[in-house]
Amino acid sequence: CFPRVFVIHRYIIIILIYLYMNLNLWINTIKNIKNRFKNTKFHYKYVNTVIITRKCIDDNFNFASKKIIDHIYSKKSLKFYQIFYDDVIIHLFTPNIDQKIKEILFRYFVIGNFFKEIYDIEILSKVKLFLILSPHKKYFPKKSKNQITFNMDMINSAQCLPTKSITIFRNEECLKTIIHEYVHLINFDYHLRYIPLKNINVNHDVFMSESVAEFFAVIINSVLNNPKNPISSIKKEQQFSIRQSSIILYLSNGITYEELFNMSSKKYISEKTNATAYYIIKTILLLNIEKTIEHLPHIEHIIHDLIKSTKLTKIINKSNIKLLANKRYSARMTIT
């Protein structure tokens, strides 16, 4: 009888935590975990050297552009390490373990503990991490008279095979990117990968799974980067996200936020990657943080209400954002 009662009580506790989920709880949890881990030393064991083959590229870097793949090939080989912490083992493939790689590993365990403490999801072990941090930066193209199509070369930094592996192939924003990919890794957003957003003028299915992963990444990254004043950093990220969304709209023949969700409009966003989800839908979530946190992971129940209530055009106009047609802007998703 006792074990059953224990299980019931355990789930009651989890339900109560969900009811009182808010930004302050997230912030305090992340800060406490970071403090616990700040002096942690991981154990590294070199296993062997792996030659970079076509199969390796096809299996782990199929979201990378040609110029990034060329950079990966230039490395010729990767060193395979086993990383140990408590009962967790990480299989790391990287040219060398430098300070940036160590920080990514640190964040893997911080994020893992965050999801364990907040959502009762165990840290995944025996995951493969492929970390080849190319110098190629994200970018938006210059304004054009023709329809601009946002693609992987402009935007993507990584990919994930849920429960199996994470690959990061850009140095830019890599510390934020590991958070985003961990959300996919643990299948937190699993159901959202099969629910495309309806009534939106985009030529590509818009999946909220990417918006949720980026929402987590922005919040957690802000706290880790500025634990003394995370709210200030989050506000800066909100403003930056508004700016990046305005660039997407501006480059898409000047489509307005209202036209994006008006199916009678002839204007639309053209993409071969998840640009709308990464930037615009993520911005909607960031401008409604408490509601988003309260309903996670099931934001499909509130997203259309949030879209209607978020007057993004007015917010963009109030932000007095001035864009130049002949300038190529950064496609970063975070400002820090």
Write a concise synopsis of the structure shown.
By secondary structure, this protein is of the alpha/beta class. It is 49% helix and 14% strand.
Question: Would you mind describing this structure in some detail?
Answer:
The chain has 336 residues and is α/β, with parallel strands linked by helices. It is 49% helix and 14% strand. The chain has helices at residues 2-19, 23-37, 54-60, 66-75, 99-119, 152-155, 174-185, 208-225, 230-251, 257-260, 275-286, 289-295, 303-309, 312-318; strands spanning 43-51, 77-85, 88-94, 127-134, 149-150, 158-161, 165-170, 270-271. The strands form 2 sheets. It has a 6-stranded mixed β-sheet with strand order 1-2-3-4-7-6, with helices on both faces. Strands 5-8 form a two-stranded parallel ribbon. A hairpin with a 3-residue loop joins strand 6 (158-161) and strand 7 (165-170). Helix 9 (230-251) packs across helix 11 (275-286). The radius of gyration is 20 Å and the shape is globular.
Round the Cα radius of gyration to an integer and report it. 20 Å
- The number of helical runs is 14
What class do helices, strands and sheet pairing give?
A: alpha/beta
> What overall geometry do the principal axes of the alpha carbons give?
globular
SSE topology string: HHEHHEEHEEHEEHHHHEHHHH
Mean pLDDT: 92
Indicate the low-confidence ranges by residue numbers.
1-9, 11-20
Q: What strand order characterises the main sheet?
A: 1-2-3-4-7-6
In percent, how helical is the residue content?
40-55%
